[in-house]
Amino acid sequence: MKVLVVGNGGREHALAWKLLQSDKIEQVVCVPGNGGTATMERCQNLPLAVNDFEGIGKFALEKGIFLVVVGPEVPLAKGITDYLQSKGLMVFGPNKAGAQIEASKAWAKALMQEAGVPTAKAAVFQEAAAAKAYVQAEGVPIVIKADGLAAGKGVIVAQTVEQAETAIDAIFQGQFGSAGNFVVIEECLLGQEVSVLALTDGLTIRPLLPAQDHKRIGEGDTGENTGGMGVYTPTPIATPELMGRVQTEVLERTITALRNRGIDYRGVLYAGLMVADNGDFSVLEFNCRFGDPETQVILPLLDTPLEDLILACIQQRLGEMPPLTWKPGAAATVVAASGGYPGDYETGQVITGIEAAETVGAIVFHAGTKLNSDQQIVTDGGRVLNITGMGENFQQAIAQAYTGIKHIQFSGMYYRRDIGHRVLKTK
Predict the structure, then answer these.
(1) What Enzyme Commission number(s) appear in the record (predicted)?
(2) Tens of pLDDT, residues 85-117
(3) Domains, the chain, ordered by start
Protein backbone atom coordinates (compact mmCIF):
# COMPACT_ATOMS: atom_id res chain seq x y z
CA MET A 1 0.00 0.00 0.00
CA LYS A 2 1.00 3.63 -0.50
CA VAL A 3 0.84 5.95 2.52
CA LEU A 4 0.93 9.73 2.66
CA VAL A 5 2.27 11.35 5.85
CA VAL A 6 1.38 15.00 6.44
CA GLY A 7 4.07 17.05 8.20
CA ASN A 8 7.75 17.92 8.14
CA GLY A 9 9.12 17.26 11.63
CA GLY A 10 10.91 14.55 13.55
CA ARG A 11 7.57 12.93 14.36
CA GLU A 12 6.76 12.55 10.66
CA HIS A 13 10.20 11.16 9.85
CA ALA A 14 9.70 8.60 12.64
CA LEU A 15 6.23 7.69 11.33
CA ALA A 16 7.58 7.20 7.78
CA TRP A 17 10.57 5.23 9.10
CA LYS A 18 8.33 2.91 11.12
CA LEU A 19 5.80 2.38 8.33
CA LEU A 20 8.56 1.52 5.84
CA GLN A 21 9.72 -1.34 8.07
CA SER A 22 6.62 -3.24 6.91
CA ASP A 23 6.64 -5.26 3.71
CA LYS A 24 3.00 -4.17 3.28
CA ILE A 25 4.10 -0.58 2.62
CA GLU A 26 5.18 0.02 -0.96
CA GLN A 27 5.92 3.74 -0.62
CA VAL A 28 5.57 6.67 1.77
CA VAL A 29 5.02 10.21 0.51
CA CYS A 30 5.71 13.03 3.00
CA VAL A 31 4.01 16.42 2.63
CA PRO A 32 6.18 18.47 2.70
CA GLY A 33 8.71 16.24 4.50
CA ASN A 34 12.29 17.16 5.43
CA GLY A 35 15.88 16.28 4.61
CA GLY A 36 15.58 12.89 6.26
CA THR A 37 12.46 11.79 4.41
CA ALA A 38 13.96 13.13 1.16
CA THR A 39 16.86 10.69 1.42
CA MET A 40 15.09 7.60 2.76
CA GLU A 41 14.56 4.62 0.45
CA ARG A 42 10.96 4.19 -0.85
CA CYS A 43 10.13 7.64 0.49
CA GLN A 44 9.59 10.89 -1.37
CA ASN A 45 8.70 14.44 -0.47
CA LEU A 46 5.84 16.40 -2.01
CA PRO A 47 6.33 20.19 -1.76
CA LEU A 48 2.83 21.14 -0.65
CA ALA A 49 1.79 23.04 2.47
CA VAL A 50 0.14 21.00 5.22
CA ASN A 51 -2.97 23.19 4.89
CA ASP A 52 -3.27 22.65 1.12
CA PHE A 53 -6.10 20.18 1.58
CA GLU A 54 -7.18 20.35 -2.05
CA GLY A 55 -3.67 19.69 -3.35
CA ILE A 56 -3.08 16.84 -0.93
CA GLY A 57 -6.44 15.26 -1.76
CA LYS A 58 -5.90 15.57 -5.51
CA PHE A 59 -2.45 13.97 -5.32
CA ALA A 60 -3.68 11.15 -3.07
CA LEU A 61 -6.53 10.27 -5.41
CA GLU A 62 -4.41 10.49 -8.57
CA LYS A 63 -1.55 8.41 -7.17
CA GLY A 64 -3.61 5.71 -5.47
CA ILE A 65 -2.73 6.61 -1.89
CA PHE A 66 -4.33 4.01 0.38
CA LEU A 67 -3.92 5.83 3.70
CA VAL A 68 -3.21 9.37 4.93
CA VAL A 69 -1.55 9.81 8.34
CA VAL A 70 -1.69 13.36 9.73
CA GLY A 71 1.18 14.39 12.00
CA PRO A 72 0.73 18.02 13.14
CA GLU A 73 -2.12 19.55 15.10
CA VAL A 74 -2.73 22.58 12.87
CA PRO A 75 -4.17 20.75 9.82
CA LEU A 76 -6.23 18.54 12.16
CA ALA A 77 -7.67 21.62 13.87
CA LYS A 78 -8.44 23.12 10.46
CA GLY A 79 -10.35 20.02 9.35
CA ILE A 80 -8.02 18.06 7.05
CA THR A 81 -9.56 14.75 8.14
CA ASP A 82 -13.09 15.93 7.34
CA TYR A 83 -12.00 17.22 3.92
CA LEU A 84 -10.04 14.15 2.84
CA GLN A 85 -12.70 11.77 4.14
CA SER A 86 -15.26 13.65 2.04
CA LYS A 87 -13.12 12.69 -0.99
CA GLY A 88 -13.26 9.02 -0.07
CA LEU A 89 -9.78 8.77 1.48
CA MET A 90 -8.85 6.86 4.64
CA VAL A 91 -7.35 9.25 7.19
CA PHE A 92 -5.70 8.65 10.56
CA GLY A 93 -6.35 11.61 12.84
CA PRO A 94 -9.42 13.05 14.55
CA ASN A 95 -11.91 15.25 12.75
CA LYS A 96 -12.16 18.99 13.34
CA ALA A 97 -14.66 18.56 16.15
CA GLY A 98 -12.38 16.13 17.98
CA ALA A 99 -9.26 18.24 17.41
CA GLN A 100 -10.79 20.96 19.59
CA ILE A 101 -9.36 18.99 22.49
CA GLU A 102 -5.99 20.52 21.58
CA ALA A 103 -7.08 23.56 19.58
CA SER A 104 -8.84 25.12 22.58
CA LYS A 105 -7.57 24.69 26.13
CA ALA A 106 -10.82 26.22 27.41
CA TRP A 107 -12.89 23.65 25.48
CA ALA A 108 -10.69 20.82 26.73
CA LYS A 109 -10.90 22.05 30.32
CA ALA A 110 -14.70 22.09 30.17
CA LEU A 111 -14.68 18.56 28.71
CA MET A 112 -12.42 17.31 31.50
CA GLN A 113 -14.61 18.85 34.17
CA GLU A 114 -17.69 17.32 32.56
CA ALA A 115 -16.04 13.89 32.33
CA GLY A 116 -14.63 13.89 35.87
CA VAL A 117 -11.04 13.76 34.64
CA PRO A 118 -8.53 14.86 37.33
CA THR A 119 -7.26 18.31 36.34
CA ALA A 120 -6.09 21.58 37.84
CA LYS A 121 -8.47 24.29 39.03
CA ALA A 122 -8.80 26.86 36.24
CA ALA A 123 -10.68 29.88 34.93
CA VAL A 124 -11.04 31.31 31.41
CA PHE A 125 -10.91 35.02 30.55
CA GLN A 126 -11.59 37.20 27.50
CA GLU A 127 -10.10 40.42 28.79
CA ALA A 128 -6.95 41.33 30.67
CA ALA A 129 -8.37 43.23 33.66
CA ALA A 130 -10.48 40.31 34.86
CA ALA A 131 -7.59 37.89 34.32
CA LYS A 132 -5.23 40.08 36.37
CA ALA A 133 -7.80 40.40 39.15
CA TYR A 134 -8.04 36.61 39.29
CA VAL A 135 -4.27 36.33 39.62
CA GLN A 136 -4.30 38.85 42.44
CA ALA A 137 -6.96 36.82 44.23
CA GLU A 138 -5.37 33.41 43.68
CA GLY A 139 -1.74 34.33 44.22
CA VAL A 140 1.41 32.89 42.69
CA PRO A 141 2.94 30.69 41.39
CA ILE A 142 0.24 30.36 38.73
CA VAL A 143 0.06 29.11 35.15
CA ILE A 144 -0.99 31.39 32.28
CA LYS A 145 -1.97 29.70 28.99
CA ALA A 146 -2.91 31.01 25.58
CA ASP A 147 -6.14 29.22 24.67
CA GLY A 148 -5.35 28.00 21.17
CA LEU A 149 -2.48 26.40 19.28
CA ALA A 150 0.88 27.96 20.09
CA ALA A 151 3.40 25.28 19.01
CA GLY A 152 4.00 24.20 22.60
CA LYS A 153 5.12 27.67 23.66
CA GLY A 154 1.93 29.36 24.90
CA VAL A 155 2.33 28.33 28.54
CA ILE A 156 3.96 30.57 31.15
CA VAL A 157 4.57 29.48 34.74
CA ALA A 158 4.54 32.82 36.56
CA GLN A 159 6.44 33.00 39.84
CA THR A 160 5.39 36.60 40.56
CA VAL A 161 2.26 38.66 39.98
CA GLU A 162 4.28 40.90 37.65
CA GLN A 163 5.30 37.92 35.51
CA ALA A 164 1.68 36.76 35.36
CA GLU A 165 0.42 40.18 34.30
CA THR A 166 3.14 40.50 31.67
CA ALA A 167 2.15 37.07 30.29
CA ILE A 168 -1.54 38.03 30.22
CA ASP A 169 -0.74 41.24 28.31
CA ALA A 170 1.50 39.38 25.86
CA ILE A 171 -1.20 36.83 25.08
CA PHE A 172 -3.98 39.38 24.61
CA GLN A 173 -1.66 41.57 22.53
CA GLY A 174 -1.19 38.76 20.03
CA GLN A 175 2.19 37.23 20.86
CA PHE A 176 0.68 33.82 20.07
CA GLY A 177 -1.61 34.99 17.28
CA SER A 178 -5.22 33.86 17.38
CA ALA A 179 -4.29 31.52 20.24
CA GLY A 180 -4.52 34.62 22.42
CA ASN A 181 -8.22 35.35 22.01
CA PHE A 182 -8.76 33.73 25.41
CA VAL A 183 -6.52 33.18 28.42
CA VAL A 184 -6.75 30.10 30.62
CA ILE A 185 -5.35 30.54 34.14
CA GLU A 186 -4.63 27.43 36.20
CA GLU A 187 -3.30 26.58 39.60
CA CYS A 188 0.36 25.59 39.51
CA LEU A 189 0.82 21.88 40.13
CA LEU A 190 4.06 20.38 41.38
CA GLY A 191 5.56 17.09 40.28
CA GLN A 192 6.92 15.49 37.13
CA GLU A 193 5.34 15.66 33.70
CA VAL A 194 4.52 12.41 31.91
CA SER A 195 3.25 11.99 28.34
CA VAL A 196 0.69 9.23 27.76
CA LEU A 197 -0.13 8.73 24.09
CA ALA A 198 -3.02 6.40 23.34
CA LEU A 199 -4.59 5.02 20.17
CA THR A 200 -8.37 4.98 19.86
CA ASP A 201 -11.09 4.03 17.41
CA GLY A 202 -13.66 6.04 19.33
CA LEU A 203 -14.80 3.02 21.36
CA THR A 204 -11.62 1.31 22.57
CA ILE A 205 -8.52 3.17 23.73
CA ARG A 206 -5.07 1.66 24.24
CA PRO A 207 -2.09 3.52 25.71
CA LEU A 208 1.39 3.38 24.23
CA LEU A 209 4.51 3.42 26.40
CA PRO A 210 4.56 6.41 28.79
CA ALA A 211 7.32 8.92 28.09
CA GLN A 212 8.96 11.81 29.92
CA ASP A 213 9.83 14.93 27.94
CA HIS A 214 12.28 17.73 28.81
CA LYS A 215 10.45 20.93 27.86
CA ARG A 216 12.89 23.57 29.11
CA ILE A 217 15.72 24.83 26.95
CA GLY A 218 18.30 24.78 29.75
CA GLU A 219 19.96 22.01 31.69
CA GLY A 220 18.44 21.32 35.07
CA ASP A 221 15.05 22.08 33.49
CA THR A 222 15.66 25.82 33.41
CA GLY A 223 14.86 28.58 30.95
CA GLU A 224 12.09 28.93 28.41
CA ASN A 225 9.64 26.26 27.36
CA THR A 226 10.29 24.61 24.00
CA GLY A 227 8.64 21.97 21.85
CA GLY A 228 10.81 19.43 23.69
CA MET A 229 14.60 19.03 24.03
CA GLY A 230 14.72 15.31 24.73
CA VAL A 231 12.65 12.40 25.96
CA TYR A 232 12.85 8.83 27.20
CA THR A 233 10.50 5.86 27.55
CA PRO A 234 9.13 3.92 29.41
CA THR A 235 9.27 6.34 32.31
CA PRO A 236 9.44 4.54 35.70
CA ILE A 237 7.24 7.13 37.41
CA ALA A 238 4.30 5.84 35.35
CA THR A 239 3.90 2.64 37.35
CA PRO A 240 1.45 -0.11 36.32
CA GLU A 241 -0.86 1.12 39.08
CA LEU A 242 -0.77 4.69 37.81
CA MET A 243 -1.30 3.59 34.21
CA GLY A 244 -4.33 1.57 35.31
CA ARG A 245 -5.83 4.70 36.85
CA VAL A 246 -4.98 6.75 33.76
CA GLN A 247 -6.79 4.19 31.63
CA THR A 248 -10.03 4.39 33.63
CA GLU A 249 -9.97 7.95 35.00
CA VAL A 250 -8.55 9.76 31.98
CA LEU A 251 -8.59 7.85 28.70
CA GLU A 252 -11.89 5.99 28.97
CA ARG A 253 -13.72 8.89 30.62
CA THR A 254 -12.53 11.29 27.91
CA ILE A 255 -13.52 9.05 25.01
CA THR A 256 -16.94 8.54 26.62
CA ALA A 257 -17.37 12.31 27.08
CA LEU A 258 -16.44 12.93 23.45
CA ARG A 259 -18.92 10.29 22.32
CA ASN A 260 -21.60 11.89 24.51
CA ARG A 261 -20.98 15.13 22.63
CA GLY A 262 -21.52 13.33 19.34
CA ILE A 263 -17.82 13.32 18.43
CA ASP A 264 -16.46 10.18 16.77
CA TYR A 265 -12.81 10.49 17.82
CA ARG A 266 -10.40 8.20 15.98
CA GLY A 267 -6.64 8.69 16.14
CA VAL A 268 -4.22 9.59 18.92
CA LEU A 269 -5.35 11.00 22.25
CA TYR A 270 -2.31 12.34 24.08
CA ALA A 271 -2.65 13.23 27.76
CA GLY A 272 -0.01 15.41 29.34
CA LEU A 273 0.05 14.54 33.04
CA MET A 274 1.55 16.08 36.15
CA VAL A 275 2.44 13.31 38.58
CA ALA A 276 2.97 14.34 42.22
CA ASP A 277 5.45 12.72 44.58
CA ASN A 278 2.61 10.87 46.33
CA GLY A 279 1.47 9.28 43.07
CA ASP A 280 -1.59 11.47 42.48
CA PHE A 281 -1.88 12.99 39.03
CA SER A 282 -3.75 15.61 37.05
CA VAL A 283 -4.15 16.18 33.32
CA LEU A 284 -2.37 19.37 32.27
CA GLU A 285 -3.59 19.25 28.67
CA PHE A 286 -4.67 17.02 25.83
CA ASN A 287 -3.17 16.81 22.35
CA CYS A 288 -4.91 15.35 19.33
CA ARG A 289 -1.86 13.80 17.63
CA PHE A 290 1.38 11.90 18.12
CA GLY A 291 3.77 13.76 20.41
CA ASP A 292 7.04 15.24 19.22
CA PRO A 293 9.65 14.13 20.33
CA GLU A 294 7.80 11.31 22.16
CA THR A 295 7.07 9.50 18.89
CA GLN A 296 10.80 9.26 18.22
CA VAL A 297 11.31 7.00 21.25
CA ILE A 298 7.97 5.15 21.34
CA LEU A 299 7.92 3.87 17.75
CA PRO A 300 11.43 2.32 17.83
CA LEU A 301 10.25 0.11 20.73
CA LEU A 302 6.89 -0.80 19.16
CA ASP A 303 6.81 -4.39 17.86
CA THR A 304 3.18 -4.46 16.69
CA PRO A 305 3.04 -3.25 13.06
CA LEU A 306 2.06 0.42 13.11
CA GLU A 307 -0.09 0.19 9.99
CA ASP A 308 -2.17 -2.59 11.59
CA LEU A 309 -2.94 -0.37 14.57
CA ILE A 310 -3.73 2.66 12.43
CA LEU A 311 -6.13 0.73 10.20
CA ALA A 312 -7.81 -0.84 13.26
CA CYS A 313 -8.46 2.65 14.61
CA ILE A 314 -9.85 3.95 11.33
CA GLN A 315 -12.05 0.87 10.82
CA GLN A 316 -13.20 0.85 14.47
CA ARG A 317 -11.91 -2.63 15.31
CA LEU A 318 -9.17 -1.77 17.80
CA GLY A 319 -10.96 -3.87 20.42
CA GLU A 320 -10.41 -6.96 18.25
CA MET A 321 -6.63 -6.46 18.11
CA PRO A 322 -4.34 -8.53 20.36
CA PRO A 323 -2.40 -6.67 23.06
CA LEU A 324 0.35 -4.38 21.81
CA THR A 325 3.84 -5.91 21.89
CA TRP A 326 7.05 -4.02 22.66
CA LYS A 327 10.77 -4.55 22.38
CA PRO A 328 12.39 -4.89 25.81
CA GLY A 329 14.53 -2.11 27.23
CA ALA A 330 14.44 1.66 26.90
CA ALA A 331 14.85 4.43 24.34
CA ALA A 332 16.00 8.02 24.66
CA THR A 333 16.18 10.96 22.27
CA VAL A 334 18.38 14.07 22.46
CA VAL A 335 17.34 17.08 20.36
CA ALA A 336 20.01 19.02 18.47
CA ALA A 337 18.70 22.58 18.12
CA SER A 338 19.72 25.72 16.28
CA GLY A 339 21.54 28.33 18.35
CA GLY A 340 19.05 30.86 19.68
CA TYR A 341 16.07 28.49 19.76
CA PRO A 342 13.32 28.92 21.02
CA GLY A 343 13.98 32.53 20.01
CA ASP A 344 15.47 33.70 16.72
CA TYR A 345 17.88 31.38 14.93
CA GLU A 346 19.64 31.03 11.60
CA THR A 347 18.85 28.40 8.99
CA GLY A 348 20.82 26.98 6.06
CA GLN A 349 23.73 25.66 8.16
CA VAL A 350 25.34 22.56 6.63
CA ILE A 351 25.01 19.45 8.85
CA THR A 352 27.74 16.81 8.98
CA GLY A 353 28.17 13.54 10.85
CA ILE A 354 24.71 12.00 10.48
CA GLU A 355 26.01 8.82 8.88
CA ALA A 356 28.71 8.55 11.53
CA ALA A 357 26.09 8.84 14.27
CA GLU A 358 24.07 6.06 12.67
CA THR A 359 27.18 3.91 12.32
CA VAL A 360 27.58 3.85 16.12
CA GLY A 361 23.98 2.63 16.49
CA ALA A 362 21.95 5.81 16.95
CA ILE A 363 18.81 6.50 14.94
CA VAL A 364 18.80 10.06 13.57
CA PHE A 365 15.34 11.47 12.94
CA HIS A 366 15.36 14.73 11.00
CA ALA A 367 13.15 17.59 12.16
CA GLY A 368 14.14 21.07 10.97
CA THR A 369 16.23 20.02 7.98
CA LYS A 370 16.06 20.13 4.20
CA LEU A 371 18.03 18.83 1.23
CA ASN A 372 19.45 21.83 -0.63
CA SER A 373 20.22 22.18 -4.33
CA ASP A 374 23.76 20.89 -3.73
CA GLN A 375 22.33 17.72 -2.17
CA GLN A 376 23.53 18.78 1.28
CA ILE A 377 21.45 18.40 4.44
CA VAL A 378 21.09 21.87 6.00
CA THR A 379 19.24 23.29 8.99
CA ASP A 380 15.71 24.54 8.37
CA GLY A 381 14.15 24.98 11.81
CA GLY A 382 14.65 25.41 15.54
CA ARG A 383 14.71 21.75 16.53
CA VAL A 384 16.96 20.26 13.86
CA LEU A 385 17.64 16.59 14.63
CA ASN A 386 16.46 13.95 17.11
CA ILE A 387 19.21 11.48 17.98
CA THR A 388 17.65 8.32 19.43
CA GLY A 389 19.45 5.60 21.34
CA MET A 390 18.13 2.22 22.46
CA GLY A 391 19.39 -0.22 25.05
CA GLU A 392 18.61 -2.80 27.69
CA ASN A 393 18.27 0.02 30.22
CA PHE A 394 18.25 3.81 30.42
CA GLN A 395 22.00 4.07 30.90
CA GLN A 396 22.62 2.25 27.62
CA ALA A 397 19.93 4.10 25.68
CA ILE A 398 21.02 7.55 26.86
CA ALA A 399 24.71 6.74 26.31
CA GLN A 400 23.99 5.63 22.74
CA ALA A 401 22.09 8.84 21.98
CA TYR A 402 24.93 10.99 23.33
CA THR A 403 27.57 8.91 21.54
CA GLY A 404 25.64 9.55 18.34
CA ILE A 405 25.21 13.29 18.83
CA LYS A 406 28.95 13.78 19.38
CA HIS A 407 29.47 12.94 15.70
CA ILE A 408 27.04 15.60 14.47
CA GLN A 409 28.06 19.17 13.75
CA PHE A 410 26.51 22.35 12.38
CA SER A 411 27.15 25.99 13.14
CA GLY A 412 25.43 27.08 16.36
CA MET A 413 24.31 23.56 17.34
CA TYR A 414 22.97 23.33 20.90
CA TYR A 415 21.73 20.38 22.93
CA ARG A 416 21.06 19.62 26.55
CA ARG A 417 23.60 17.33 28.17
CA ASP A 418 21.34 16.13 30.97
CA ILE A 419 18.51 14.32 29.15
CA GLY A 420 17.35 11.49 31.40
CA HIS A 421 18.82 13.00 34.56
CA ARG A 422 15.85 11.83 36.64
CA VAL A 423 16.10 8.16 35.70
CA LEU A 424 19.89 8.13 35.91
CA LYS A 425 19.72 9.49 39.46
CA THR A 426 17.39 6.68 40.54
CA LYS A 427 19.70 3.87 39.42
Answers:
(1) 6.3.4.13
(2) 999 999 999 999 999 999 999 999 999 999 999
(3) 2-95 (3.40.50.20), 127-181 (3.30.1490.20), 192-320 (3.30.470.20), 330-425 (3.90.600.10)
